[in-house]
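hi! just following up on the protien thing from before. the input was this:
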Amino acid sequence: MGELKDHVVKEFKEAFSLFDLDGDGFITADELKEALKVLGDTPADQVIAAAIDEVDADGSKTIDFAEFLTLMARKMRQKEQTLELLSAFKIIDRNGDGLIESADIVEVMEALGEYITLEEVRDFHHYREEPSSQVKGIVL
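and the predicted 3d structure came back as:
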């Protein structure tokens, strides 16, 4: 896996071996379920099957090490994207209260060359189904 550094691959190999309970080089649904149970999680069989199907490139209904690396690389990218979004949110959330106010949205849009009014932001609020003025950390 070219995008992962050698030391990261080594760490993932160690993690893989913790999931591969019988040491045959494959993680089965039962092994995945058991390993997750040890970690305090008890996902339904459908969730386990979906997790395996997500990376099971060869259709074996198991995860080999290459597929495990693919999964881990994907998870690392998702985590990086989440951190980038949180960073962007914190830039817009000027007073650090976990909320983005309408005026902040207008200011950011103007900085991006898009000019909208407070009224347009508030109109957007009326298209939402929820009656609350706070949704997912955004004040409209």
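The two ends are 44 Å apart (CA to CA).
The chain has a mean pLDDT of 82.
cheers
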